[in-house]
Amino acid sequence: MATRRQFLYAGGVAALAAGVLPRLFDTRAVAAPAAGQQSFEVTHTDAEWRQRLTPAQYHVLRQEGTERPYSSPLNDEHRAGTFACAGCGLPLFSSKTKFESHTGWPSFWEPLADAVGETRDTTFGMLRTAVHCHRCGGHLGHVFDDGPRPTGLRYCMNGVAMTFAAQPA
What positions does the domain MsrB occupy (predicted)? Predict the structure, then answer.
């Protein structure tokens, strides 16, 4: 016979699995981006965003999704140049601030001036800082305080949310 503690533990595990686990692996829309509650210089209807972006870009930029780690070619991009928003083309990061974080996503220690905005993200029971494009509000990734000098920050970005333009030789 199960003890009360075992019963409560099993119930808690079942509730957690029913509520959290499906959301972790759900690639469908669950909510509008938090940044979407602000007004931005570049705006489109949902149908227009779907037409302008690939399904993967739409999932990340408009639904706050996350690409699989090590899936973006931009993770291995080491040329001099600029990383820009895939939604509106706003330059976001210089290659001079990119570093290898070994996380599976392109990481930077500093964005370009006036390129990104930040919002509080409490999904999945964590407190994080989400990063979005300052011009269109597209979700880019998150910023953490475990980066290198001089800022100590790690802007962990989804590669699919960005494009790269190499600097002319």
Answer: 46-167
Residue 85 catalytic? no
Q: How far is Cα 30 from Cα 33, in angstroms, rounded to an integer?
A: 9
| DSSP assignment letter at 69 | T
* Tokens 């999704």 found at: 65
Q: Which of 85, 88, 136, 156 is catalytic?
A: 156
Place of tokens 């290198």: 148
pLDDT in tens, 125-153: 889 999 999 999 999 999 999 999 999 99
Domains annotated on the chain, with CATH? 46-166 (2.170.150.20)
* Contact (Cβ atoms closer than 8 angstroms) between residue 9 and residue 15: no
